[in-house]
Amino acid sequence: MNPTALTIKGLIKLHKPEQPIRPVVNWRGAPAYKPARLFTQKITHLAPLHNTYNLENTTDLITKLKNTSILPQFTLASLDITNLHTNIPVTETREIVAKALEKNVPDPQTRDELISWYANITKQNYFTNNKKIMIQKEGLAMGTPTSGLIAEFFLQNLENTHLAHLTEKHKITRYF
Q1: From CA 104, how far away is CA 46, in angstroms rounded?
Q2: Higher confidence at residue 2 or residue 99?
Q3: Strand-pair partners of 126
Q4: What DSSP string describes 70-93?
């Protein structure tokens, strides 16, 4: 493998008004690309997520809505997270992943090694643009093999931690 500096490109969000640009970092030539892929595979295997509230696709949403009695006084809401990857708190999520590993992986050496991988992979938040090296100071870069999984750990923890309170407070009858 010939490691190269990460590059960034912009993808237009066609589904959004004014079509903003989504920055995506190309990680294929990154020094940590293979460890990041391996980390994702290992975490997925060793500490699988429950996906309690996840939808598989639009058909799954339609099926669940059909099976939900919706009364006239109900309000349907859709939540959208603005700039998801760049808003994931990397340090807090490290603790969430560490707790999941502690719960699922009996060997402390394996846990420590995977958390070390996490730290090294998430520190590689740089890219080149116009021959200048730029550093992304917060969150995760979109385009890394680990970003989706790490974001999912954070979001599922958020849902599992706060959903009961929000459900009661806002009289939510169904959440998915």
Answers
A1: 7
A2: 99
A3: 135
A4: --TT--------TTTGGGS-HHHH
